[in-house]
Amino acid sequence: MLEDLKPRRNRYRCNVVELGNSLDETDAKIFWDAISDSENWSAHGLHQALKERGLSLSDKAIKKHRWNECGCSVA
User: Fold this and answer.
1) pLDDT tens per residue across span 25-60
2) Where are the alpha helices (DSSP H) in the chain?
3) Cα–Cα distance for residue pair 29/59, rounded to 1 Å
4) SS3 59
5) pTM value?
6) Crossing angle for the helix pair 15-22 and 25-36, to the nearest 10 degrees
């Protein structure tokens, strides 16, 4: 009766992917390189740098994406 019982996870959108997809090709490459570079870019530092350039992305969203806990990673 309960063989297929699994937790139900809501599918939320990933703000990182949405922002990355909205950028032109040159900016998108720079953005994705920075998102992937947690050694040189802290989530807060990247959030601040993006904010200074008029882009809104929280450090929490960056962390969730990096830790595979965002909407694009949740099955």
Assistant:
1) 999 999 999 999 999 999 999 999 999 999 999 999
2) 15-22, 25-36, 43-52, 59-66
3) 19
4) helix
5) 0.80
6) 150
